Amino acid sequence: MKFEETRAASEKMDKTISVYQEDLSAIRAGRANPAILSKVTVDYYGTATPIAQVGTVSVPEARSLVIKPWDASILGEIERAILKSDLGITPNNDGEMIRINFPPLTEERRKELVKGIHKRSEEAKVAIRAIRRDFVDQVKKQIKTNEATEDDLKNMEADLQKLTDSKIKEIDGISASKEKEILEI
Length: 185
Prior knowledge:
Elements: H1 2-25, E1 41-44, E2 47-50, E3 55-61, E4 64-69, H2 75-84, E5 91-93, E6 98-101, H3 107-144, H4 150-183
Antiparallel strand pairs: 1-2, 3-4, 4-6, 5-6
Helix pairs in contact: 1-3, 1-4, 3-4
């Protein structure tokens, strides 16, 4: 019983961390990164389609992205989608492709991004702690139905706390790495 619940809790926590990492990958750190466009969708024949599925997204230089759609007729749609996306980037449409240039981040913008990372980090930690609480509650219910003992609960709580601490440490490491990337000049 103990091993299965710990493994299940670990898997849920890993999913939370994965979502957190994906969320951070969309934050622009002054360098061009195709992941920034991962949540931008284009109206392609009446269907909301991710940009990566309507063309090629490449990084020709450190501070620019190029989007070359397979169907040139949707260049305007891609441009509008990027402008509406609230990413703070302006696409340049040359009739064949869309080029996005990333200006260097200002010190103020860097600090804003770091604050956002701290907020997202705390949200991820809260989610990890909620997973721990849910699994402890499951064992408490099992105690009431005599499926588990108080000793099981104590052991489970200790194991889950160790797991939670390691996952929170992992989140802190991911956050520190992203902060360092953003604060680099």
